[in-house]
Amino acid sequence: LSLNFGDIGNLKGLVIRFLLTTSYYQLSVQNWFSLHRLQLLYNHSIQATFNATRIYAPARYSYHCEHVSSLQRYDALLIPSSANDLSNLWEVTFIDFQIQGFKIQEGHFGYAKDCASFFSPAILMGLVMSLILLLVLAYALHMLIHLKSLDRHYECKASPTYFPQMKDNDMGDEKEPLRSSGNEFYELRNQQLCKIYI
């Protein structure tokens, strides 16, 4: 597929040539096309050649990408084919790039396969943040479920307190004898013991 621009300034007969290949893949049971190489020609000779990477789509679809470039900041889908030619002197960037080499119907692009990855850095960061928030929510729910009110842990009940037998008869009206296996103990009747469990 060739784009002929003609004469642009000092560039005589500028042509951008896309070399496309098609292959059949049994796993997907369909033909796929791929951009194999990109060539820049002017003055009737090849001046630069770039190998294309990850530019492919099913043959009945088109391929779309926001940036197809030889620059690293755009993920460098175009790589100079050799260090010995003039490819390293060129910087090529296509903006809003869309291509389809085969099975074009009525002059319109088919359904576009986009170059955006399903696991881009932004999507991965969003997944990580969602996981962290989910863990915090699970911990908060766990703490709420196991939270018990203070009323359940506060008990105030009468508890008997035992004292050995005393010879003082002044406390006869406040104590009651307890009989157990020959030993006598006394219980304070109105004694209360309060316990707080935390």
Write a structural description.
Residues 1-102 form the V-type proton ATPase subunit S1 luminal domain. One of its GO terms (cellular component) is proton-transporting V-type ATPase complex. Residues 117-154 form the V-type proton ATPase subunit S1/VOA1 transmembrane domain. This is V-type proton ATPase subunit S1-like. It is found in: Membrane. This protein has 198 residues and is mainly beta. It has two domains: 2-116, no CATH class; 117-159. 13% of the residues lie in helices and 46% in strands. It has one helix at 121-145; strands spanning 2-8, 11-25, 30-42, 45-52, 56-58, 62-69, 78-80, 93-99, 112-114, 154-158, 162-164, 175-180, 183-188, 192-196. Strands 1, 2, 3, 4, 5 and 7 form a six-stranded antiparallel β-sheet that branches. It has a three-stranded mixed β-sheet with strand order 8-6-9, with no helix packed on it. It has a three-stranded antiparallel β-sheet with strand order 11-13-12, with no helix packed on it. It is elongated and about 85 Å long. The model has no long low-confidence stretch (mean pLDDT 77).
